[in-house]
Amino acid sequence: MLAPTPIQAKASSSSSELYLSQARASGSTEDCMALYEKWAASYDDEVGDSAQNYVAPVLVAQAAIKYGLSNGATNSVILDAGCGTGLVGVALSMAKAKAIDGIDLSPAMLSVAKRTGIYRDLTVADMNRPIDKADGTYDLVSCVGTFTLGHVGPDPALRELVRVAKNKGVVVSTILQEIWVPGGFQAEVEKLVAEGLVKVVTEELIDYVKGHGDKAVLLILEKIDRD
């Protein structure tokens, strides 16, 4: 494959900048879905280029393997929430994860994810609403790039991710730094802790989209066994 010329690279960067700005300015579920329908085909190439350098999926997969797969990747059942085109799922599969389900708002993004061949099941879902999954299903729930401007808020999403995790299961997510406090995410985590539903394993600032200088809170929650 030929390397892109400087003009091609600049065009790709400009396109991804435009889509990213539009994504973060989405005012409704419909706006968000329409944007990703257009962006899906070129998404992986654009967010992975040097101008964007979207590192969060790999960092989260590494954290999930370190903190969340006590049964080992091969024996764990995983939900990739807001899976998009499958960047996190692919990273987890490289660690030998086998049973990965994905949910996302965009059918076009799910179509790209399906072509990776690593998902057991892919379902359209709006994470601003209750998730159509049974309680206590997953050893690990990952959620990357979804808790950001113009996308999904903390309630009911964080509580739902905890609900579908098994007892002692782990939820690994990223929350864009600029909405961590003002967007209500920190308060929602404190509420879940106060209710005895989870304990915080780690809450640290990591690189997110390095090309933008964006940071995100890497949040890892362990569901408390209440049986």
UniProtKB/TrEMBL annotation:
The lineage of its organism: Eukaryota, Fungi, Dikarya, Ascomycota, Pezizomycotina. One of its GO terms (biological process) is methylation. One of its GO terms (molecular function) is methyltransferase activity. This is Methyltransferase type 11. It comes from Penicillium camemberti (strain FM 013). Keywords: Methyltransferase, Transferase. Coiled coil: none annotated. SUPFAM superfamilies: S-adenosyl-L-methionine-dependent methyltransferases (SSF53335). Transmembrane segments: none annotated. Residues 78-169 form the Methyltransferase domain.
